[in-house]
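We close this part of the discussion by returning to an individual protein. The amino acid sequence and the C-alpha cells for this protein are reproduced below:
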Amino acid sequence: MTEIEPSDDDTSVPVVDIEMVPEVVAELATTAEQHGVVLRDLSGLVSELGGQAAAQSEELTALHTSFQKLEKALVDQANVARPSRWAWEFLNQDAAAQLWQETRWFVDYLTRRYPLGTEVSLPPCWYRHTIAVDEFSDLYAAWREAYCASDRPSSAMTAWRDRWLWPCLTRLAAHANWRECKESRRHVDPIARQDPTDSEFESFVAADVASRPELDEQTLPWL
C-alpha cells in the first residue's frame, strides 16, 4: 500500500492507515455516544436548575409580597396613632391656618350654592361655634372625597348630600346653640356651658383599677 508522504505544511491532514479506519470509527462512535450521555446529563441538570430557579423566583416573589403586606400593615398601624390634618386639637400653626382657610372657603361656597331655609341657615359667626367648625371641616373632607378623588361619575356625589350635607345641617340646627346669633345677626355666647371633668376623676379611676385582678385569670361564664 502506498503511503502519502506528510507535507511540511502544519495544517495538513494527518495520514491514517486504511486498516485502522474501522477501529478509529468505532472509537469515534464510542466517544460520540459518551458525549451524548454527558450532554443528556447536562441537559437534565440545566432543566433541574431551571426548575429550582423558577421555584426560588416564586418563593422570592411570595416573600416580597408578604414583606409589602407587612410594611403596609405597619405603616397603617403607625398612621392610626398619628392625628390627621383634620384633627383640630392637634394642629400646629401652619396646619391650622390652612384648614381655617379651606373651611371658610367651603362654608362660603355652601351658603352661596345652597340658599338655605331659616331653620337650617348658618349665622355669619359660625366659626365661633366649635361644634359647627368640626361639622363643617368634616363635611368639607367628605366633599373633597366625593368631588376631587376622580373625574369619573360616581354615586358618592349624590350620597354626599343625602348622607352628609342634609344630616349635618339638621344636627347643627339642633345642637349648635346659635338661635340668638341668627336672630340678632351678631354673635351671642351660648348660655348653656358644660363644665370639664370634675376633680374626682383620678380617685374614681384609681379605685376602679385597684379593684381589678393583676392578671387576666378570670373564669368566663360561657367557657
